Amino acid sequence: MTKSTRSPRAAARVIPLRRGTTLEMVRLACPDSAQTLRISESFGLAILDGDGIRELHERLVVETADALKDGLSERAMQIHLQRIVGAYVGSAHGAGQFYSRAVTEAREVTAKLANDVRDEDLDGPVGFDSQAQRKREFAADMGLQAHALRMAAEGAVAAYEQVIGEAWKPFERPVEHAGETVSKKAAAVQMAAFE
Question: Do residues 95 and 142 lie in contact, with contact meaning Cβ atoms separated by under 8 Å?
Fold first, then answer.
């Protein structure tokens, strides 16, 4: 019988992390300036001042940090701004995902309209838009909103780097296993009953 050799080091416990939303994820989900301009021109919507939105939010976060600097330590400021910027990034990402779903629905309904045999997809009565047109217009509105929130998030991220001196990264918290915690507590109480 052979004896297996064990490493003197205990096995490291791997704690899975809940991935945070990054600015890159926002950029992939939300339209950029060029696409937003095309949307505005195609649908007759207002042309957004994306750079102005970005600069305003950058200035807003910097001025907020400046107002708080006497009351917060460096670490507290970092944590506070981490949360603020995370909220901007999360909001923009949610808007980008919603925009993507709206575009998908608009494409599906518009593709059905190309089928001449279907009656339910025909244009509505005179003076009313078809369902496909309403879906396209809704997607265009969501595209502008997603772009505006993207620019706000980019401004907040830039402000974080300016104030803290390092690039913003999303907070990644360990995944909580509520069942394990409760069972460990229950086991401790049960074992205490034997004493």
Answer: yes
Using CA atoms, how far apart are residues 80 and 128, in angstroms rounded to an integer?
Answer: 49
The single residue listed with the structure tokens 């992939």 is 28
Task: Mark residue 169 as left, alpha or beta (left: phi above 0; alpha: psi -120 to 50; beta: remaining).
Answer: beta
At 100, list the tokens.
């993507």
**Predicted confidence (pLDDT) per residue in 107-159, tens digit:** 998 888 766 555 555 555 555 568 888 999 999 999 999 999 999 999 999 99
What backbone torsions phi and psi does residue 125 show, to the nearest 5 degrees? -60, 160
Q: Which of 194, 98, 185 has its CA nearest to residue 144?
A: 98
Query: Residue ranges per domain, the chain?
Result: 19-169
Give the predicted TM-score (pTM) of the model.
Answer: 0.75
Helix (H, G, I), strand (E, B) or coil at 91: helix
**Euclidean distance between CA atoms 21 and 194, whole angstroms:** 47
